[in-house]
Amino acid sequence: MQTRFFTTTALVMATALAPQIALAQDDAAATEAQPEGGIQTIIVTAQKRSENVQDVPIAISAFGGEALRERSVTDVASLGALAPNVNLDGGTPFSGSSAVLSATIRGIGSDDFAFNIDPGVGIYLDGVYLARTVGANQDLPDVERIEVLRGPQGTLFGRNTIGGAVSIVTHNPGDTFRLMGDLTTGSFGLLRARATADLPLAEGLAASVTGAVTSRRGFQRRIDYPGTPAEMRAIANSDSYLNFNHADYSTNSRQSGDSSVSMRGKLRWEGERVTVTLAGDYTSQDSSGQNNSLIAVSFPSGPFAPTNPLPGTGINPVAAENGVLFAGLYNFCIGSTPAEIAARGATAICGARGTSVFPGGLLAPLAGVNVDGDPFNDRLPWDGRFITGDPDTSYATGPTLNQLEAWGISGDITFDLTADITIRSITAYRNTNWTAGSDLDGSPLSMLELTFSQNQEQFSQELQLLGSDLLDGRLNFVLGAYYFEESGDLHDYVNFDEGLLQVDGPNNFDTENFAFFGQVDFRPVEWLGLTVGGRYTEETKLFEGGQQDLNGGNYKLFGCADPDGTIYPFGDFPLAPPVAAGGPPCFAALSYPNPDNPVQVYVPGVNRKTFSNFSPRFGVQLYPSDDLMVYGSYSRGYKTGGWTTRLTNPQGNIAPDFDEETAETWELGVKATLLDRRLQLNLAGFTTDYQDVQLNQQVGTSPTIDNAGSARIKGFEFEAVAAPVDGLTLNASVGYLDAAFSSLSASVSRPDVAGAIPGLRLGAVVGGQLPKTAEWSITFGPRYETDLPNGGALVLLADWTHRTPVWNEVARYLSLRRPTTDVINASMTYREPDRLWDVTVGVTNLTDQRFLVSAGANDAAGVYFGSYNRPREWFVRAGFDF
């Protein structure tokens, strides 16, 4: 891949320097100055050409760089509070990192980071698609503007934009020297320094360099568990997380800290008819992991309950769909006598943890340690004693880390064939290396600890042929071709319940994609516009999984192992076999797929899937006047399928897969600019048919993916900007979303399944609300700027964001629900007379409202966990612009 990238880049650069190539029109600036008291015009490139946002027949929220800086928007996730029917969270359940972006628009998105799961909202950086949610929560030190496009964008943006797209456009070098940036301090020892320098080098040639550094203590403190002396001995007898396989063992006394460095450089040459922009960026993060709190614990009756044991094993058929309840098994092992353990067929599973396959990982047995008369080997049981009830404290002692290194280079070349026709080429290569970890059980025990390592690289090449203002301004078009290639690996390390299940999951992925697309916008008469477009995509995915259980739990549960950890996968086992004498060995009887590795649960070999799709777009626009547009559109988008990788039980020779999902949206909208540019009103109503929804659902210990349902989504969005008097601007938006399942497969979690605690969860049901989706989203933001006698200015700014309750996951666990939220941010800025520097004092989350921004449940581990939003924080920022 790298060889192809550097070869292609060399060819592109050589072509760019050829004398016959002509200059293309540059992207317009983010904003254009308007008459005193008017509303600024924001120029966007949502349709691959520069246009006034009010002329684009798409529901789109656009934010200029100055507006983002004033509102202290420092990363992509912060935008979720500013746009209707948009939910952007930093972090996903059990990712342990706020560098991961959970993006949902109009009820469609993805709340996971795994390599096998593609995002449902596309993130683009200067026209380059970011394929992974890891690292997509970009730092924004030098942003020119951000465009949030709502609804399927399959025609011009491609696959995995089924919910919408977020396009980030960074600052281009200016033709005069300029140095701008800011220094910020604030709560938890915040220190942030950002600077951008424009460096003119020669006629038509300029560079820009941006650097940013952030350091901040975590707001969640890890505190000592306040046990009795006997309980403290039990903690000391628990196995250290260092004894289990992890991607990294880094820990910290605080969580949700920041320590990051980012850099970006651009070199831009503007010739007579050609513009070439070469760019590179680098980000490094090395900090504690995201905050995590233990929210609840539970013990559904089922495996290792007092009744109905399956003879000869430790399995219980009650609530069998939940698999083994490892939390209950752990308590049973430490609190039962050898005779009681033997009566349940659990002698092996309560014995030494680890197996003879990996003898270096063997740990002492758990059997009977709390009832053997020796108080010095006791262990703490698992129960609700570890719930602190405080979002800012945790009893966790295990790993907490977020280590990300991401970089990319790109070449963007535009040239004019004629005054109206432009060719553009975007070539890019990106690379990410990420390691993260979290202790989700929030306790001194190792009940649910996860670490991950992921390496990813991607190459993309896009060619566009753009026609603008042809036929006396009546015709615009874009034709294009796109190629994308991605490869990488993700290694999961998950430890359940003091090592009773030890998941070690290496996975490798390869993707190749190509597409052809086009869109024509034609205005046959002054009052009528027509849009027609489409995109054809073909994609091939390869996947090789290696998931294994280092504890060999199934062999132990079914009597194919000794208490010392020796397993007998191929026969000659001394305990009760699961089949009659002379039958197949345990390896075959339990459907293990790899005789070379008897504890591997995933089928060996490379799996392959191919997808193809055509996503059309049709639209009609009516123009009753120059400042009013009424539009209607139909658009389609899709997200590719893949394989479920997080498996803890053998699947035989089957690699469980899932297919693509699709969404079709009808939209009707109005965009108006009124009262001499003092009032701007946008309204969009829509309905979406969402099919083959890829649902993340818990099956036993494993979060799995399947095409488990369909949904109907309908709603509206209203956005208004008003400048009633000079100096005062009012921004408001209202979003309504009725996003509910219209069908579900039988495999999806049901309300309070047999054996569950009543009221634990509502389950996914037909008519139930989609996850990460608020019914109502409302924002209001007044901004007032007044001149001071000395020639300076004072800016007063506030933002209020209201969201109705949100389910953080599919099964709708009551304890993990995000309640109605009302968040207020406020700031005051002084600008000195020459506008060379300014000082801002502000507060975020003024009322200190706390709620779960991500959450997850694992019934088998007995752990229900989540990450809270940040508390109230103050900041002081000094900006400069020379």
UniProtKB/TrEMBL annotation:
It comes from the Bacteria. It is found in: Cell outer membrane. Transmembrane segments: none annotated. InterPro entries: Beta-barrel_TonB, Beta-barrel_TonB_sf, Plug_dom, TonB-dep_rcpt-like. It holds the Pfam family Plug. Residues 370-846 form the TonB-dependent receptor-like beta-barrel domain. Residues 1-24 form the signal peptide. It comes from Aurantiacibacter flavus. This is TonB-dependent receptor. Its main location: membrane. Residues 53-165 form the TonB-dependent receptor plug domain. Belongs to the TonB-dependent receptor family. The keyword Transmembrane applies. It is a multi-pass membrane protein. Keywords: Cell outer membrane, Ion transport, Iron, Iron transport, Membrane, Receptor, Signal, TonB box, Transmembrane, Transmembrane beta strand, Transport.
